[in-house]
Specification:
451 residues; UDP-n-acetylglucosamine1-carboxyvinyl-transferase, Chain; four-stranded mixed β-sheet
Length: 451
Amino acid sequence: MLTSNKLWYTIRHLETTNEQQDIMPSVTIKGGVKLRGEVPIYGMKNAVLPCIAAAILTKESVTLKNVPQITDAINMLNIIKSLGGTVEWVDEHAVKIQCNNLNLDTLDKKLVKSMRSSVLLMGSLMARFNQIELSEPGGCIIGNRPMDDHIAVFKGFGAEINRIEGGLKFSATKLQGSTFFARFSVTATENALMAASLAEGETVIKLAAREPHVSNLVDMLIAMGAKISGRGTSTLKVVGVEKLSGCEHIIIPDQIEVGTFIAAAAATRGELFLKPIVPEHLDALFALMEKIKLPYQVKDDVLHIMPNGSLKAFKLQTGPYPSFPTDCQAPFGVLATQASGTTLIHDTMFEGRLGYINELTKMGANATICDPHRVLITGPTPLYGREIRSLDLRAGVTLVIAALIAEGQTTIHDAQILDRGYYKWRERFQAIGAEIKTEMPKEVESLVRTI
């Protein structure tokens, strides 16, 4: 029997070695459960990663608080350690980062290539060193996510960009402020903010992403001494400074986690209390909850999701903030299987984010994929336990919800992918009534004894 700590460290070991092929864990979930209780909401995955990258911008100490120990955050910190930075966990959710002596030659390129979010290193490393060589990053396979927006950003700063074997080389004498369009790309906006903070002159970022985690990064950069105006708008102005200082910064609660547990509560006809939340970050979710007649109450930083009767089918279209977040699309897809009528889901952001539908149909869902962006789901339909597979982070947690409402037992393979973005997801679901067992191949059981 694996304890949660042993499982956690085993998965982290497998994620960063060649030993992960065909020996990753699966989970078995008993269906027919109504989730009830309190769920802690941890720091946001999409906020902590750019903030870790931003620590490279200064030689002084940076302390980040409310940090979830998810594998993506651990891997980003390991990349900083590979450069020569130091990382110290002050407590379970606070990490101290020092980047005073960095060496680009020791960058762990294999780790960079393994995660999509490593693209965020461009802004901070270019600002610090004026040159970098990066492997094209990996991550979840959820559609075509080209580097074009990032290349356009650094060309705007005056960088020369060349293709090299397995990646790209960026170089500049000194980054120069300029005006350009980020086309609402979150990571391109974040890279531009980091680079502009130490560039010469003024930078104007038009069509900037307005997501809460972009504003969270702006808050951190301002605390470090950056001169940024336009926070929360689609036009950001940055006046470069000579150097940035250290800071303490708090990562915002994860509104995608909130959306995930909203869908889980509604699908299982359960009752959950989610804390802490930032209500102003959740307008699109609240609007949909009202549309489908899902009762809820907000008091201070607590969201109370109440038991529901019959849910109505809905139309859902994702888009840049403040529209409905693409990362919540899949969990609401499984909810649609339990709603009365036909639901139309249109993901305008990514063309490969409907792969989970094939797994749901194996379980009995009545769904038709119209094209790579749209799906029709008719409900309510019963789901049945099957053997299914996690395709990406958000699809993985969606299948957990599907398993909870299914008749019988469901086995989800490649479940480790959830650890990339949901800290202690097993424990949190178990605490509110889920019966989840983790199964490891024998090869991993023996590996546990050596770690």
